[in-house]
Protein 1
Amino acid sequence: MEHIENDDNYAGLSVNKGISQPPTVNPYLQKMRKARRRLYTAGEYVEGILKGDMSILSQAVTLVESNLYEHQVLAQEVIEKCLPYTCESVRIGITGVPGAGKSTSIDVFGLHVLKKGGKLAVLAIDPSSERSKGSILGDKTRMEKLSVHPGAFIRPSPSAGSLGGVARKTRETIVLCEAAGFDNIFVETVGVGQSETAVHSMVDFFLLIQLAGTGDELQGIKRGIMEMADGIVINKADGNNIEKARLAQAQFRNALHLFPPTPSGWQPQVLTYSGYYEIGIKEVWDMIDEYILFVKKNGYFDHKRQEQSKYWMFESINEQLKDHFYRNPQIEIMLREKERKVLSNEQSSFMAAKDVLDYYFNIK
Amino acid sequence: MEHIENDDNYAGLSVNKGISQPPTVNPYLQKMRKARRRLYTAGEYVEGILKGDMSILSQAVTLVESNLYEHQVLAQEVIEKCLPYTCESVRIGITGVPGAGKSTSIDVFGLHVLKKGGKLAVLAIDPSSERSKGSILGDKTRMEKLSVHPGAFIRPSPSAGSLGGVARKTRETIVLCEAAGFDNIFVETVGVGQSETAVHSMVDFFLLIQLAGTGDELQGIKRGIMEMADGIVINKADGNNIEKARLAQAQFRNALHLFPPTPSGWQPQVLTYSGYYEIGIKEVWDMIDEYILFVKKNGYFDHKRQEQSKYWMFESINEQLKDHFYRNPQIEIMLREKERKVLSNEQSSFMAAKDVLDYYFNIK
């Protein structure tokens, strides 16, 4: 009977049940808990997931996140069996500058969504997360109300060797959550590397949380993110900050008008709100509802999801094609030498590439 | 004695000499011209290029652009021999919406640059160009004054099977031009596919030509281009249009402030000018001079060129890795079936990718 590892490490909270429990040092209780966490069969996982059993869902997600080969094989079986059962869901990506109040906002947005009925899974993509430290995203201690809500399922970011690995595991976790009836999915990310692009490629609506700056300079968000956003929401529009927030809103609206039309045909909106004081929350979600209606009506919703499915297949292929090449030890050595030659104008970039590729295709 | 093909097709103008000649239908003259165009040895091309012989430079560029295997082998030899001789140059990418007045602007910008001394090569990247039709870019009939200036060398876009091919040939043409003493290089592109990204990756300064719109909506430029620009210049700031141009200038300046700092540390500027009436030309070039001074001083100039050289090596590798995979007939068949399965939720994107890759890596 195998034990699933990594279950009690996350800040002393059991991640199995999806709700936080006070840390315990009772060894007998721990031993009992470990004994319960055996591996089920794929069918048992699927059955539990389809019933909406949060504990089994949680263990299945842990399986997906595991880097052990046996776990991965079993996880793929579970995923494949869950694929046909996906529910009608809405997936929302949420990003924002550090300090923008993402966790507080997700807490209050999440509760608002749950009030309307349904269930909510909050996932995260943070390529820099390490199991021992825990990610700053998906931190239940910061989503106080959500973390004790029976309809909410919160997971920190998986850790993996690469963004591609993290993105894949999150994408697969979404499959399990939707099969378990979670019709609302949040995927949170912070601005690390290409993580926003990854999140944008697995959600229906991409929400950018911004802050009003000091003066008229609003920076911190990476180039390209603003153009990805379906909605920009400016937080901390309360008290003395209201004027600045409205100014920022006007500036972002002007900026958005300089961009060409979006593929969806939707004109991205800019709203202000206050996560902490819970002002303007309904308006933010009305905007998202309006968007979903709009893109379902014009067919873009389904079209985008199909494009995303294909994207992940080709993205996966392209990443592994490159991995296979660049991880070859001989290739690594050749490339270092070629880089030197190219930088010192001894060889053109293209001939250097050709030489290495000739070698690669001939050693197969 | 081989004839170099494709030399008289371009709108009846001889591309060999770099200056436009009236179209001729004198068959004897054509025959003589063909007889002169034999292939030199690599050493002869290089010698001619280093002397600044425009005719030999032109023939060498035609060699680079040729898709014939023997020409390519010879071209690579010439390029490699030219690599160490690159002069101190400035490479400027120029893009803009159709109708923005690019050709007129390049004509007047080019003359301004030449007035200060030195030589100017005007190249183009247009992946949609076909030899028989000729590209709309690099059209000498539109660059009237420049095309008769002895210090100017103008080429239309090469044609190739892909953007990657066109970009490569242009990049290699730059090498030859610089070896021939062309210290100013313009690379023009129109907004097709990823051609701006390709141009941005081979120039020092990226100039975006915009127009003032009707009202406050200035569209037409693809997402991501504005963020690539080191300078945005708004054309047709003359007569009744001056007010609109200044309004557009203000809007773009506001928008640029919303973006995070550029890697170079340079704050992109927005200027207005009139290509047709030759107003504000000096200011545009003062901006570019200021930029070059700035990035040479902080080391970014050299750093960027090195990164670009490496970029083209890895880009070339990645493109050919994909080509080798996706052009395999069995893979093509498998992928069509896998796409179907993924879209109908029968298989996850990632498992579909894995199946195809297992097959690919095992048939080598």
Protein 2
Amino acid sequence: MMEEQHIASVFDRDLEAVQARIMKMGGLVEQAILEASEALEARDEELAEKVRRDDLAIDDLEALIQEECARIIALRAPTAGDLRIVLSIMKIAGNLERIGDYAKNMAKRTSVLVQMQPISGAHTALRRMAREVEGMLRDSLDAYIQRDATLAKDVIARDRDVDQMYNALFREFLTFMMEDPRNITACMHLHFIAKNTERMGDHVTSIAEQVVYLVTGETPDEMRVKGDKTSTDPSVAPDVPRSGDA
Amino acid sequence: MMEEQHIASVFDRDLEAVQARIMKMGGLVEQAILEASEALEARDEELAEKVRRDDLAIDDLEALIQEECARIIALRAPTAGDLRIVLSIMKIAGNLERIGDYAKNMAKRTSVLVQMQPISGAHTALRRMAREVEGMLRDSLDAYIQRDATLAKDVIARDRDVDQMYNALFREFLTFMMEDPRNITACMHLHFIAKNTERMGDHVTSIAEQVVYLVTGETPDEMRVKGDKTSTDPSVAPDVPRSGDA
């Protein structure tokens, strides 16, 4: 019994340490999203370059977290419930790393876009979309620490807004391209940025789904009303019903 | 000593079982790539629908493999070297799952593209690209089972060909769009398919990198000549040198 308590407390200390790293990683990713979208709107090449450099620290943190989680599993041989928590941390670290990559990609495209004629309004709309995703990420990490399934489900619901922002931008870019072929190259970049921001939202959603699963045991399929997010992308299936997606 | 041998052999049995699942998953993903590109070229909606359905089995296998790996780590408390192997399996399962998603996405876009005027030559070029990626995937999984770092490095090198195929298609689609705005929507879909196929190649490369790491201890940064693959994407940085990517 004493023994068990001892093991439990050691596991909890390990868990706190790695969860602190997840929070640090989350903070860096939030910063990357905001700075990347700010660099895009302000056509600020230096800030874009900084975002690209800073992504290395995010990648290093992910590798460190994966190693630590594996070490915890190996050393503590956690119970099923505790194992579920460690696995969720490994998944969340993976989601954060990918969101960071999308922010880096946005920064790369910015370095190219500054050489082109700006597309009026697009950068502001993209920044609004990025801000929404950053807010969802902050809430999903809070929900994780607080084990707050209600907040996590709220984040999952808000992803629909991001999908709608993307859909609106997609149609806007199509119009710009059809109006003037000289806009095509710039719009291709902006469309990729919009698409990648929408994907960031999908990864934030999967973090929130991890939280709901941890707290309630509900799996994503059970909690997700719609199917695969990509089916909400008009560039995939504007007229195909989501049900056709399962 | 006997004890150690016993534990080792139990670990090896577990490992063989989960590696068999990885091979099964790999086979399903190879099939998805080939069928998705065949459906695209033949404008075969039924085959595209089959690819979308079959992706569920791939997702289920991934979840199963992740659980089994966690169970192995928890029960066998493997040595550092064995732990590295189990972690590599978890990473490879994740890569395979994402490749399967891209194949599903290709199938979804096919269901939309069949309603549009075909873009001459594009589907054949895309299928060639998909075939190349499928071959790389097969070799990377063989390299994993054989612990063949040479074959794995060959796969990593071949990813440059896939990047070049993508770059060529990207410029082709731009031309089609500029020539006739009525091509824009179809070209946007085809461009996403090309981009996603190039991303499949990146995930195959990361599987091959896992193999090299397992066999030689070399990390991706050490073995990768170029930096982040996205920097080879002309839609990201046509004129930015790769060195500017680090």
Protein 3
Amino acid sequence: MIKAGIVGGTGYTGVELLRILTLHPEVEVAAVTSRADAGTRVDKVYPSLRGYCDVVFTRPEIENLRDCDVVFFATPNGIAMTMAEALLALGIKVIDLSADFRLQDSAEWEHWYGVEHACPELIGEAVYALPEVNRAAIRAARLIACPGCYPTAVQLGFLPLLEHGLVDVGNLIADCKSGVSGAGRKAELSSLMSEAGESFKAYGVAGHRHLPEIRQGLRRATTEGVGLTFVPHLTPMIRGIHATLYARLTKSVDLQSLYETRYQDEKFVDVLPAGSHADTRNVRGSNRCQIAVHQPQGGDVVVILSVIDNLVKGASGQAVQAMNLTMGLDEFIGLELVPLYP
Amino acid sequence: MIKAGIVGGTGYTGVELLRILTLHPEVEVAAVTSRADAGTRVDKVYPSLRGYCDVVFTRPEIENLRDCDVVFFATPNGIAMTMAEALLALGIKVIDLSADFRLQDSAEWEHWYGVEHACPELIGEAVYALPEVNRAAIRAARLIACPGCYPTAVQLGFLPLLEHGLVDVGNLIADCKSGVSGAGRKAELSSLMSEAGESFKAYGVAGHRHLPEIRQGLRRATTEGVGLTFVPHLTPMIRGIHATLYARLTKSVDLQSLYETRYQDEKFVDVLPAGSHADTRNVRGSNRCQIAVHQPQGGDVVVILSVIDNLVKGASGQAVQAMNLTMGLDEFIGLELVPLYP
Amino acid sequence: MIKAGIVGGTGYTGVELLRILTLHPEVEVAAVTSRADAGTRVDKVYPSLRGYCDVVFTRPEIENLRDCDVVFFATPNGIAMTMAEALLALGIKVIDLSADFRLQDSAEWEHWYGVEHACPELIGEAVYALPEVNRAAIRAARLIACPGCYPTAVQLGFLPLLEHGLVDVGNLIADCKSGVSGAGRKAELSSLMSEAGESFKAYGVAGHRHLPEIRQGLRRATTEGVGLTFVPHLTPMIRGIHATLYARLTKSVDLQSLYETRYQDEKFVDVLPAGSHADTRNVRGSNRCQIAVHQPQGGDVVVILSVIDNLVKGASGQAVQAMNLTMGLDEFIGLELVPLYP
Amino acid sequence: MIKAGIVGGTGYTGVELLRILTLHPEVEVAAVTSRADAGTRVDKVYPSLRGYCDVVFTRPEIENLRDCDVVFFATPNGIAMTMAEALLALGIKVIDLSADFRLQDSAEWEHWYGVEHACPELIGEAVYALPEVNRAAIRAARLIACPGCYPTAVQLGFLPLLEHGLVDVGNLIADCKSGVSGAGRKAELSSLMSEAGESFKAYGVAGHRHLPEIRQGLRRATTEGVGLTFVPHLTPMIRGIHATLYARLTKSVDLQSLYETRYQDEKFVDVLPAGSHADTRNVRGSNRCQIAVHQPQGGDVVVILSVIDNLVKGASGQAVQAMNLTMGLDEFIGLELVPLYP
């Protein structure tokens, strides 16, 4: 059994990791840390885990993670970069769900995250874990940077177009909508049900931290200059991201078969039949991305609909997928999660 | 007192007309028709109106509307065009909330609505009632076509840019999100809370009936060829539309002051301070459109956020605004509706 | 014009007072205080009020309220009792929406609220403002204690039974459900949409502060000993309270006509036709309580369904109703609020 | 592998059976019927099942079920009673999720369901499948009647009190709240999100079909006459039932340990620690019932909070639990479902 540790087990990505790992046949959750809840049983904070998890929260210290084979960081940004080196030195693999190691350019990272990077020397080694793009690198990685939720939905939706040079990459638009769990388990006014419920709004239009991450991912698939407008919105539901992507075609091809071919071997990317609309409820609780391809009125604008569960394929599920790869397991084990509908 | 009649009083736009008109100081609701509920008191079907409306539903026949000064059609498409002529002949003004008289090109109307138009001879006379664009014509009109909900939010958002020739009108994108009340009070599986709740999806990407209406409205503001991609989405809330509009700037101007100037005399269009995000909850229940203007990272893409309550400024409120104009009343009377927050 | 002040204008009852008072024909909002937002325009914090309120938040000091005729406290418990005396000394009427003056027994107040009462000498003078019970006293009051949200729904539902001695008052049960706005505008984990949405739970079963308040109100209507079990629940919606009340009949009467007679002159209490179910959406945004009376299978258990909007009849609307009374205005002025449906 | 058939696979209990059975290691879904969708792939109607279910809907005829070992009826009431006999004759076990075989008294069944029972001779053989009460009988059954959703939550909550004769069984109150999925996948106005969302209401107060079922279950646990008041409510969420149960204690005991002892061997009934509140989100998607025991202010009223997911422990999950028992499998296999939180 693989011994897994979770740093920051009280947030939504942390408890989602626990939901998945407690049933993972090859994994034993050996440690879950929480500065605030150290000493408390995990299932006291999360009654949904009663009967599935008898672990007690410990403090987030290397000492408490020493016996792990792999450690997940389900923490706010800025924590993983201070602990990764010590864990790697102990031969422990590190899978970071935060943004610390996502950007390869530390200067850009510091510009967007507003602090100095505590561990720039490891940035180069970190592998950006979007398996549909760089599976081989993930298998060989010690330090894994899990993609953000928006970047996962947007890249999986745009990549086939860029990989085949079919669109004007200087004019890409990603209009994205996220459920409120994306804001995390933080006591903030804007996340109150009275504020976020029964209402819809955009946020971070001036510039969101996922913009440089998406741009970096798209650049890897094209030689042209990427111009991307990314507008995130908050939609009154708990789980789910719906990315509506717009691009102008420069060549005429059968987009439906292009997408089906691109993802035919990808179990977690499901290209819907022509004419379909993707619905976040159909991926709720699962590690799947569903994609629908449209070319309205046969014009030269392509519209891609890409949906994921922000906490699963957008975070914890994809992190376990990366763990399976880097630990030499079947990529899909523990991730047979049928969506919860309705 | 103006005697108003409502044809189709059992739908959401009908009951919203009643919510507004029952408190309108210059209007008396003289008749409300419903084929299904004829003979039943309105407040028996809508207990929310108890104490405010003692009218009894009658059958949708000219005879029952004879005493009205103005008649609203809050009906499905296809009804108003069969009754408008007879009402006008009686000197009764007609305000249609459905789509029957919105498109000036009857061939295009028949293409999108799939039936022959029953009254093409009146199309030319019908006035498209977006007061912020053609107030004078509305004042003089006998037959008024109220804009659709999406077209209201999209046109108010795009028009200043087109009126000043600031953007590439061949590449406009309108990514719109609507609450479920936009689907009307119809027993359909897709509108069940178990289906529409906690989920987000696009629909009608191949082509939605509001596309030609928006295009027609935008064409009036420009001499260039309009190219518009319109993607509507369903968001899990009851009221509200959020339009996120994208265009490429061809000139550099102070967009914030451009919008503030364009709407400075428009009481129902509120341009938010620079840097704001528009939130549908802040217009819930009111006849107001709130607009926020953004130019992400100072690039050449302009992003306009335009929000309305689909049942008020997007339907019944705007219809009453048109009535005020055509009946020679103060445009704002009866529409002093402070948004319901939270 | 009556000059009104609001202490604590940033909470939900505060902004709801503003929604109502900005359209009140006899009232001018002269001051709104907020320690945190002093110096900021109210409509900057609440864009829903743009165009309706140009007041700037001031600090909560007597000096800033000196010109008011009446001051509302929309504050957490513990504030009004420290400022009421000084305001009364200035001849300013005080209407407290918090719990400071609701309980006539200061010892019980201190037991349930856990602090010493700062102004016990005024408790005796304070009038509990449930107009349907003590209208005359409210008219004559200087210091008004507005009922809590649950107590309003429960008392209006139970009182007719107790006033006529029809039930076993030693065995009353009030199973109440509230929308999340009842928790106020406070950044708390339990009020996050991800926590409170799509879920239902009871809270405070061991003892809720509204229990002694309800008990005190019921005791005034009976000579027997009141035994009440009160269980509040949180339901995933923003506004509304639904009280389901159970009592055992000791006499046989026509309950429907009893309730209709009791409330026939009460404009804000609406007894629904026999066989109806009360639905919170039908009072949303209005100052009305709707009540349905049931006697399942003709047995000896009476079930009363009583619904209100917790922020209107359960708080700010009822406070304005009390203000109208104590300032000698028409009780209903400014409260003609048609429910927002859907 | 056990071959399972599902009659009525297009409703919510049907698709939930598919969610569970597609991952059940001992079961193969051999047939799924739907009169309306015969000939269509199941995953075309339910994209959430893409990749998990390649079955095609067939017509609901015995012929199409001949190869099954067990057949589930996830149909409206009235279907199972017309097909059960033929299936049993073929040696096929029948598990009915509808109400056809729940009541042992056919006269009472006909009174509440308003039609003549098509197969009264099988009523006596049918086993009411609440495993926590009659596990042995279920193991031996050919024809299984699955409990309703409300009856499951209410019986599991009340039974320990009745089994030990601790309360006045003549005065039981069950105030129950259900998510909207309980109304099924039927196009009805009252289930529209615009109607059921953001609102709370009681329904069926005069008499609900689950009343006689609950009463029958409670009578089995006591010799005294059962007097039950049952009031169901609709709460604006999709999944979950919260039963708030009230009874008057006639003896004084340690209720917490009584409940813990009663259910200590029941994996699907989880008695929460003293002082807890049960929250439907903590059982969402799982087959678990969580129960909290309260005795407010140490009085003689006991308040039991009992929560389930209406589609799992309240329907499809419990049906699979019964199947496991009657097919001689481990009772828990295929039901290791960690709740989806948040």
